[in-house]
Amino acid sequence: MRTVVYGYPCSAHVDPVEKKPFFHFLPGSKTFSLATVGCNLHCKNCQNWEISQANPEDSEASLCPPEKLVELTKKNDCQSLAYTYTDPVVYYEYTYDTAKLARDSGIRNLLVTAGYINREPWKRLLNFVDAARIDLKSMSDDFYRDVCSATLKPVQDTIVQTRASGVHLEVIHLVIPTLNDKPEQFRELSRWVRTNLGSEIPLHFSGFYPQYKMRHLPPTSEETLDMARNIAMEEGLDFVYIGNVQSKLGQNTYCPGCKKLLIERVGYAIMQNRLKDGCCPDCSKEIYGVWK
Amino acid sequence: MTRRKFIQELIKGGAAIVVGVYWLAEKTSPRKFIRAVRLGKYPGSLKPLADIHKQGKWSG
């Protein structure tokens, strides 16, 4: 087996960590983000399809070996390196070597992934990972097969494995009108998260925009995302967020103990962060996350 | 051929079959981890790294 994208990112940028989104990992910090072309999923709704569904032969990339990535991360005052935009599973060897090198240099490693990977390689990679944001696109195997050319069970296994490993975890769910936007679907997903991962794992409901092979569907309404958030909170999840739309309440972090505002966000900006050593300043409840 | 010789040959043959089957099973069973080999040359076109300081236009 050969990897043709090792050392050749098609995209590299300094992003706020909130853009990934990570809401409970070094809020307000910058992360050096990169991707190579390609993905092991073929989601019909992919927002990054121009790079995720491209072949290396038809793409443009820059030579950037792991050593240079680490150097650029330091030079740009980023606290972390994010393997994102497409899926780090596809450029596994590049991710693995860079993550190892970055850890030695005191840089944190963040994975943004669909989690469609076998247990053993994931276990090896997790040794060098500080945080993972994993998509849970649906609770239906048919959805995974029809929309993503994948299956549900390996993704669920990856999420559970990540939680058990102690690596910081946040889960995201893209809400696509008519496909996975029913109240009972939100309830089933929220219950699964609470039962298998715990109530403290942040869950992001993200809005869909017509893209790629799903241009015939409308964007997700803010009401639907609000409903999803309310259902997830009814099901006992402590941190439920709304993304890809302007939402005042759905972007802030509130203390699950005393319900007071802890982190106020507008877009990707942190307006205030009241956490004291990872705890609520009012009731001293410890908040799940990596805060320093 | 004496009976002892025959039994010796039988044991040898049996052992060879067991070793062969084990070797074949090991070869054909899926490996848990494979590391891809790096290809030196990028098959697409190369460009210098640009706009690093600009926020990425891609989702995630």
Largest sheet of chain B at a glance?
none
Gyration radius of chain B, rounded: 29 Å
Which spans of chain A of ≥5 residues are poorly predicted at pLDDT below 50? Answer: none
Helix content of chain B: 40-55%
N-C termini distance of chain A: 39 Å
3D shape of chain B: rod-shaped
Q: Give the spatial strand order of the biggest sheet of chain A.
A: 2-3-5-6-7-8-9-10
User: In percent terms, what proportion of residues of chain A is strand?
Assistant: 15-25%
Helical run tally of chain B: 1
Secondary-structure element order of chain A, N to C: EEEHEHEHEHEHHEHEHEEEE
What is the succession of H and E elements of chain B? HEE
Number of helices of chain A: 8
Morphology call of chain A: globular
Instruction: Find the structural class of chain B using helix and strand composition.
Output: mainly alpha
* Rg of chain A computed from alpha carbons, rounded to a whole number of angstroms: 18 Å
In whole angstroms, the N-to-C terminal distance of chain B is 77 Å
Describe this structure in words.
The complex is a heterodimer of chains A (292) and B (60). Chain A has eight helices and 13 strands. Chain A has 292 residues and is an alpha/beta fold. Chain A has one domain (11-248): TIM Barrel (Alpha-Beta Barrel), CATH 3.20.20.70. In chain A, the strands form two sheets. An eight-stranded mixed sheet of chain A has the order 2-3-5-6-7-8-9-10. In chain A, strands 11-12-13 form a three-stranded antiparallel sheet, with no helix packed on it. In chain A, helix 7 (183-196) packs across helix 8. Chain A starts with a strand and ends in a 19-residue tail after the last strand. With 60 residues, chain B is mainly α. Chain B has one helix spanning 3-28; strands spanning 37-38, 45-46. The longest helix of chain B has 26 residues, at 3-28. The radius of gyration of chain B is 29 Å and the shape is rod-shaped. The mean pLDDT of chain B is 93. The chains are: A alpha/beta (292), B mainly alpha (60). The interface between A and B is large, with 45 and 26 residues.
